[in-house]
Amino acid sequence: MSQFDDILGADEPAPIGHNNPPDDRSEKAIQNDALVELWRVFMPLGCFWWRENTGTAWQGKKVKHDKDVLVLAEARPIKFGLEGIADIMGQVRGLAIAIEMKDSVGRQRKQQKLFEQAWVKAGGVYILARTVPEAIRGVQRALAQRRVESLSIKS
User: Fold this and answer.
1) What does the alpha-carbon distance between residue 6 and residue 31 come to, in Å, rounded to a whole number?
2) Which of 33, 48, 108, 141 has a CA-to-CA distance to 130 between 20 and 30 Å?
3) DSSP letter at 108?
4) Alpha-carbon radius of gyration of the chain
């Protein structure tokens, strides 16, 4: 047993989806809670986590701005982020981790599956989770599988 066994889950964690009540909140709420919990749980090991956003914004000359309406002249879309990238990205002791959070009915889109394949092929860990405990256990499992490498680093 090492000093990190409580974080790494020395007792075999329950399989994903096992004894986890469904989380009926929005994906955004689940993602936010997962991000907070990932920092709290893995901070002692040395970690860094961030929320990855993708989408489209609009830029142009402001013509009119009312309470809920913004009118732009010469409007043009600006796409940001990598399509399909996981919701939460991070690393723990040098292990690159991507976590895709889904609500109780969410499914991976084609671009998300392509990102998963590329990420894993490049040596990263990809976790698909529906609840915060599933995300935490996924990281614990990945660290436990790479225990020798992750715990042999001298600080």
Assistant:
1) 23
2) 48
3) -
4) 19
